[in-house]
Amino acid sequence: MRLEVHHIHSFHLFPNLELEPSNLLTLCETGGNCHIMLGHLKNWKSYNLGVRKDAEVLLQKIKARP
């Protein structure tokens, strides 16, 4: 599985938050590509401010699988 760092607030719009730990989230890049799906709402020009909650919900669903 490949992982990518996602910036919750886009570093293009918020350059001061680029390396701020609270602005970073690790998401998968392989399979369903959580990075583009959850982090960018299927559009690289978009960003999801609720990505932490969405990633947690997805993780719980994955853990619940038999």
Task: Provide a descriptive summary of the structure in words.
- Helices cover 30% and strands 15% of the residues.
- By secondary structure, the protein is an alpha+beta fold.
- It is elongated, with a radius of gyration of 12 Å.
- The two termini are 20 Å apart.
Structural key phrases:
15% strand, alpha+beta, 2 helices, 66 residues, two-stranded antiparallel ribbon, 2 strands
List the SSEs and their pairings.
Elements: E1 3-7, E2 24-28, H1 34-39, H2 51-64
Antiparallel strand pairs: 1-2
**Mean of residue pLDDT values:** 91
Query: What percentage of the residues does DSSP assign to strands (E)?
Result: 15-25%
What is the share of helical residues?
25-40%
Shape by Cα distribution = elongated
- How many extended strands? 2
Annotation field: number of helices: 2
Structurally, how many domains make up the residues?
1
Structural class: alpha+beta
Strand order of the largest sheet: 1-2
Quick one: biggest sheet?
Answer: 2 strands, antiparallel
Distance, first to last CA:
20 Å
- As residue ranges, the low-confidence spans are none
* Succession of helices and strands: EEHH
The Cα radius of gyration reads 12 Å
